[in-house]
Structure formats: C-alpha cells, structure tokens
C-alpha cells in the first residue's frame, strides 16, 4: 500500500486521467442522486394543517403503476365526514372536493393550465391548509367565492368546466385557490376522494379511531404517509425528472468505467518495464496485481473526495432550471442527502477498481524479462479474453436492439441506451482487428511521402495505442449518432402515423386552458368527445378504463380489444362506477373496430357523473364560434403542437445525455493522447536528430491523432448506422410499412469536429514541450 | 532459433565468474536461464540446489526473491522510490520489515549511506548502479547475476561497481555471475567462460589479466567469422 502511495505521488500525471474521470463521475452521480433523493412526494400545501387525512379506497393500479381510486359520492362523503367529526380529539372533518377553476382577466385565462385543474375547493376545506379569511365573510350561495387577491364585494371572471361565470367575492383568503360554498363545490367536482381532519389531540390516536370508523370505505393516512396524497400530475413530473437522472447516472457510470479502463490499459502498457523490474526483484504476479489495485484505490479515494463537494454544491443550483423545464414540480428544493454522497463515494471507488481490473490482470502477467527489453514492441493486440468479451457484448447489444420494438414505450429509451453501450463496448474491444486494414486504406495515398510513411508504419506497429486513442472517439460518435438517430427515426414514425389519421379539417383547441368548457363546445357545430375514467369490476378485479361521451347515442359502444378484455358482447350489461362514485349498469349496444379511447358512453351521462371533465378538442364542421379559452386551428397544427411539446422534452434529454458523453469522452481523448504522446518523446528526439524539423514532427503527430479520430469515427459510425438499420428493420416489421432512416448528420459532424480539435490540441501540447526541451 | 545449445556450466559458490562472447553468442540468454528469468526449452537449471524446471511462476518468483539478486545494465531502480526504499523493496515484497539499520548498512557498504533519501533521478548513473547492487545483495542471495553492469557507465564509475562486486565475493563469499564484453571488467573475475553460437567454447581459470582476455576474445572472433 505504501508502495502504491509512492507510485501515485511520483507519477501523478499517469493517473490524472483516472483522477479526473472518477472525480467528475462521482460529482455527477452525487449531484444526480442528491437531486433524485431530494425529490420525494409531498402532501399538498393545502393539507398542511391537517395531520390526519382519509382517502377514498384504492382499487388497483393503472398502466402507469399509479393507484386507481374510487370516489365517494357526495352523500357518502358527507355522512363519513359527520361521523369523523364526532370522534374525540377531532375539531373538524372537511370533505375536499376538487374542481377546475381558472381566473379570466381581460378575456384571457390566466395561470398554469394544469394547476388550474385542482384550484377549486369547498370553503370548509380551507381550514385543512390553515387558511383563514383576512377580510369579509365565507361564501354561502352559488356564484360566491372566497379568494386571495380580491377584495370582498368585487366580482371576478372565471372559467369552470361548465363555462364562463362571474363570481362575487365575499371574502379574502390568505391561501391559494378558489373557495366556494360546500354544496356548490360538491356539484362542480367529480366526487370526493379526500376528507381532512383537524385535531386538538394526539394525531396517532385520532388516526387509530378514524380507522375504526372508516373501515373498508377508505384509508386513513397520518404523518409521512400523508405524502402519498401528492397529486398524480406532480408525481408524474417527478417521474420524468427521475428518468433523466437515472439515465445520467447510468451513462455517467458507464463512461467513467470506460475512461478509467482505457486510461489504465494505456498506462499499464507504458509501464511494462517498470513492472518487469518489480517482477525481477521479486514481486509475484499477485503482488503486481494488488499494487495496481492499490494505486487505483488511492487515486479513486482522492478523486471521489474531490468530486463529492463538487456534486453536492452544484445540485442546489440546478433546482431552479429543473423546475423551469418541467422536470421537477414547483416549489422543489434540493436538500443535503448524506446517503447519496456516501453511495456515490463507494460507487466511484468500485467503478475505478472495475476499470483497472483488466489492466491489472494483464500487468501481472508481464514477465520479469520485460525489464531488460528496450523496445516497445507490442504483444498481440487481441487476446482470447478480448475476443470473448467483444463477441459477448456485441451479441447482447444486438439482442437488446432486436427486442426494442416489442418493448413498452417507457422501457425503450433505457433499452436503446443499454444496447448502444453494449455495442460500442464491443466495437472498442474488437477495434484492433479492423485498425490495421483501416489504416492501410486511409493512408494509402500518402504512403510514399516521409510523413505519410512515418504515420502509416508508426500506427501499424502500435495498434493498441491507436485502439486506446480511437476508443473514446468511437464511443462519442457512435453514441451520438445512435441515440439521436433512434429518437429521430421514432419521431418520424410517430409524426407520420399521427398525421395519417388527421383529416384535413379545422379544430377548436384549448388556448391557455387545460381543456374546453361545456359552453365552448356547445356553441360549435362539430363533433367532440368528453373524456372520463370509469371503474369496471370484472372477474374479481377492478380496473380503470378511459371512456368518452360523443354528442349523441345511447348505451355503450366498445372497441374489440376492450370487449375482449371485459368478455362482453352486444346486448350484455356492464356495471360501471363513474368518477363521482355512483354506479350504473350500461347495455353494450355495439362492438366496433374502433371506439374512441376504447369505450363510448352517452355524453350527457359523462357530464352528469364527471362535472369537472373538459373536452380536449372539437372537430368543427361549421365555422368556429369564438369562446373564452379556445381557438380554432388546423388539425395538423393541433397534432403538431402536441408532438412539439413532447419533442422538446426528448430534445432536452438528448442534449443533456450527449453533452455528458461528449464532455466525458473529450476528456478521455485528451487524456489518452496526452499520455501516449508524452511517452513518445524519446522517439521524437530521435526523429529530430535524424533531421526532422519541429514542424514536421508536429505534422506527423497531428496526422496520427487525426487518423485515430478517423478510425474511431468510422468504427463508431459503422456501429451506429448498422444498429439504426437493424432498429429500422424491426420497426418496419412491426408497422409493416417502410420507415425512413434518419441519420443526424449535423450533430455527428459537430461531435466529430469537437473530437478532432481536442485530439489535435492534446497531441500538440506535449510535442511542442518535448521538442523545445530537445532543442533547448 | 536456438540461443543455447548443449551447454553445461556450473558456477561454484563463492566465486566470481565472467561470461564473455560476441554479440548473439547467447551469453545474456544463459544468464536469464540460469537466473530463472527465462525458461530453458530443454535441460535443467539448478539454483542453490533447487531445480527450477517444475516451479510455478509464483514459486519461481519466490525462489528468485530469496536466492537470486540482479543488476541490469540500466533502468534498475523504481523511479518513484528513494534509494533506501529501493534497497528495502525485495524485503518488503517478501513480506519482511527491514531490521533497523539493515538498509542503511547495505547502502553504507556501497558507499551511499548519505544518499538514502534521494530518488534515482537525483543520483548519477554510477550511484544508481551501486544502489542496484545494494538492493541485489540485501537479501543475501545465493547468487548475484549482473548483465553488463558497467555497460552504461563511464570508466571510473564502472571500476567502482566492479570493485563492489569483487568485494562482495571476497568479503561475504558471494557468488557472482557477470555477463560482459569488456575484457577490463572480466579481469575482475576468478574465472572467465567464453560463449559462441550458444556453446561453451573456452574458459580461463584463475584471475587473468585484461590483456590475456582480450587476446583470447580476439582469437575467438577470428575463428568464428
């Protein structure tokens, strides 16, 4: 261990690559996990004064893995509230109906459209957040409201699911939201899902007593469990953010291992004589291996200690931007996460040890005699292990890529990332096989010139060195092309598929609102569907289904898939539970190939049982009639706006991941070239003594660096294009129609140019220092 | 290619043997095989009574560590370690802590007691070679092999190195085998063996003058060409 410490101290330059890779990797992982762990579900602010909450029963999970809840009917909620209010220690029990309200100022809806869906409340629920009237009186009649930021007696314009309304402000509240009289709130909301309790006794005792009262009719949550009441929309934002963070951590870890492995391999190759000497003076292979691990351990611990504060201090700075781009909910703050820091530290050290593994094993096999050999004649570039590992990763990557189209959409990006990593590792491992023919081809035109000959022969005898320097370029180029190409191809497919379905028509779409009000829809001539979610119990399990209400019709129409799932055919009765908690039996009128979201029920029924429901769009058959919070546009623009919104997020993900890879591999390119070139100074001195000018040497090394970049680019590009081709074939097979292959030339060119510039700078630096030393 | 052919040679304990021969005569290969650095394809190598043929890499390393010392022509020291640390290295690799004063005494024997804390980069070539000798002798090996130990040194430093090797034989009964092509270096040995084409072709017993060795070498080269 002390020997390792001396080695590291003496030749820190050789370990700088590992140090930087691990320090940055640890910073990245520490920062990402801190951000991730800081993002915990939180009970909404408006329940802050309610230590015990009762939630309507959960009946299973939806396809996103989120629990599906069954609402209490207004009558059930009122009854349950009365019984809970009577419990000892409970000061009040308030049902919390929620509905859509958005304030309209000068004819324009204001505020965040998604937040507005949860902005309407019953007055009695204001006390759950500890909100009080700062002026005026509580609302009593319909069309009366208590709100923050308006004086009692004033009138405000609002939009609700029914349409525009003018409400009289009776009181000013010191909290967010619109509070209307309880009966009004119950009629505007789609059932009640939460009853909050305020207590003056011990919350835990109240919770126990409440459980006895509620029984199977709901779930009592207290303490930290209240955080599970976070609205699904907020949880989904956190989930999105987590996806990026997970991808970042995975990619960061992978690239760090890659960089450490290539640095260690190069460094071990350069230290053959020293290791031979150690072997000659009596170090066993095991001792050499342990020395390599110990050295890396020393470097990794130092690097991790440097990376931790970097990550921990950067994370809080990212909270604002993350909220800004919609990857964390509003009000998100980063807190110190000791577990994340400890985990990142351990991970950093493990990654470094994993990276050095192959180099250590190789070094331990260096014969003692190598200490006596002067020449840097390379051993066989390909070892059986390298062949095996290369073949295995290639096969696994190809398998994953082939499976991709049949995976759920949510898993595809992860699978794509994994496949890219595997295939590129395979390419890096197998690179020496193709480097020799590739170099011969590329340098063919210059084989007669002195510089061309030097480059050609110098590269051909040092295949491993070229492989080491080409590897990071290969990774960068391959990764960029594969990732952007896959996404662009999928985008192209989706865009084309959606565009196929769009009739050339005009639609009325929401404008600054989460959906269209009933009044806006009723004013138009056209067709629309009012979406809702119903619960259907079938074969002992209850599941949620999207249903929609077209303007006319009676009974229920199912599409074939849903009918098969419910084992229902025309004429059968289906029992369903509406959003407001009430149940009814519907007769299946018909089963069709397509039926809206899978199930069509009369619009009038949807409206009655889901008063807060909003229409997504109206397909117009007459000329549009102006309405607040709605505007007419072509169907194509409407679909495009939807795609663009999704595309923006995907682009952001890509930008972050590619930026991360390019940054990391840029580092690796610089590091391997710096190391390789610095070790060749004696060779350059000999060249100088043979009459080469400084400029000529620089041209030789620059040409070699560019050659390495070219080799990396070709291999990376080949892997990426081949994989993309395979991916496209799979998509085509699934859709049974041709799919255009999109290759992101622009991005690829930028990345290649970046690599070339870094490579040139990293070679020129040691050469210029070296030649100056030789002449000076 | 056969570097050594039907060669049978014994280096008796407590003697200083010089191995000479033209380039490519196999003298270095003989040294590597005798020292257990390289494995002979046929025949047998016995170091201090132990046949090395059947030993594993690990066992061979242990044998080398305990019984064999090396001095190379150049690049002998670990650049990261001080002179004292370099000398202590074989002991530490064997898992033994040097006794107090052991390393200093060894450095004193090669006249570098005051350079214990210097790194190789801060020492002259001759000093580095003396540290290498101290390191080779610290384990009290059965035999010390030296491969052209004066090849990279100036005349004065070379003489100092040879004097140290001679002293090890005379004072501590050390067995030394040295490959060299320099008759003046070989003149320090008790016995000179001559190799050509991987065969033992001649030997001079008893201390011989450089003149005599040079004549013998010249004669050999004439015969071979």
Automatic annotation (TrEMBL), chain A:
Annotated GO MF terms: transmembrane transporter activity
Example of a GO cellular component annotation carried by this entry: plasma membrane
Annotated compartments: Cell membrane
Family annotation (Pfam families): FtsX
Residue ranges constituting the ABC3 transporter permease C-terminal domain according to the UniProt record: 248-366, 656-771
Record InterPro entries: ABC3_permease_C, Macrolide_Exporter_MacB
Membrane topology, record value: Multi-pass membrane protein
The UniProt record lists the keyword Transmembrane helix: yes
UniProt keyword terms in alphabetical order: Cell membrane, Membrane, Transmembrane, Transmembrane helix
Spans through the membrane: 12-37, 244-269, 297-319, 339-360, 381-402, 414-439, 652-676, 697-722, 742-765
Family: Belongs to the ABC-4 integral membrane protein family.
Stated name of the protein: ABC transporter permease
Provenance organism: Paractinoplanes tereljensis
